[in-house]
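INFO batch 0412 | record 1 of 1 | parsing
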Amino acid sequence: MVQEFLSEMSSGNKRISPRSCDTFVALPPATNENHIIFGKNSDRPSDEVQEIVYFPEATHQPDAKLGCTYIEIEQVEKTYAVVLSRPAWLWGAEMGANEHGVCIGNEAVWGKEEISDEEALLGMDLVRLGLERADSAEKALDVIVDLLQKYGQGGNCMEDEASFTYHNSFLIVDRKEAWILETAGKLWAAEKVEEGVRNISNQLSITTKIDREHPEIRVYSKTRGWWDGKSEFNFAAVFSYLNTARIEASGSRYCEGHKLLTKYEGNIKAETMMEILRDQKSGINMEGAFMTTGSMVSILPQDPRLTCVHFFTGTPDPARSIFKPFLFVPNVQPFLKTSSPVCDSEDPVKKRPRFKSKPDRRHELYKKHEVATATIDPYKNKGAKLLEKMKALEKEKVTQVEELLRNGSFEPTSVVHLFSECVEEELNAYK
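INFO prediction complete | emitting tokens
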């Protein structure tokens, strides 16, 4: 449970210390193919369920409204198909992809700028909105900063009466490039990445290489006395806490993540990224009251004739989970076994005051995985056999995808149920 995590709220402490999530990208020549590889671990309260859901493209009526986690905003005329890994209680997503090969993952970040408790858009709402409304990484950046300016960011980011709030950073990737977007309230800075490796964690990481920025960020920084207006503008130095001990844990993960990326630089593929996300020694695969509750890896071929492939676990602890592949093709059906029960208007998230109760949001795969993996440690032989079976199933699917990419063409009907079929095979492995 999350009591250990929430104990930090005692003695009048309204803020919870920085922790959670690591997001990575590798671009040629760091990869072993002409592919971009994206990966993220979503680290959340250990009892929070993460679901994998698919939403098809859609056309909306003029003047339509859209209900996000806490607030209603204006809907756009057209939204793209998306696949999302999200905490089951909210509207947005921790990470996901769209039909145009755009992937986004977000991180919680803290700094000198005050965090608002007022309900607005969550960073996770902005992830989904960027994916639904943009067909490139830079356009997704535009969507996010425009919405940030109009609606702001804020509100409780945890399904609990205790307050857990933060600013957000984003790693936004497509077939050509990546963008790091880091925010402080409505202010922001962005860095373009066109080659090599990059990762983000729970700290501001953009320094002096700023490719785009909020038009008022420098004036605001001078007004607050954080920047003298003469020295080179360093976004992380200006907006980060003076007491860097506050972000020591996330800084360690950030450094360890970068070390792992550089260790494999030049030969990074999807399986490499999966192993990085499984690394426990570095803290990237987080354990404890706050743990890795879902993971994602994507292959984004730079050749537009090749399809993008997105792998999701939908279960906690990537070291004890199976990455299952998904491809955007026509006629994808809802993922019944990885979708959580729907509470509709009776959901405690929608009632005021919020979070007075917490319903069981476990989907079928989560339940079966929870029971099966509980046997791994106490029953060594049985646990080893189960892990071996899980590893074999994942390897089979990765090999299938690699063959598909090598061939360059395939019949869409042959993969339309690929993710759901893999979930069924996983469920059978747990019997």
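INFO post-check: The chain has a mean pLDDT of 93.
INFO record closed
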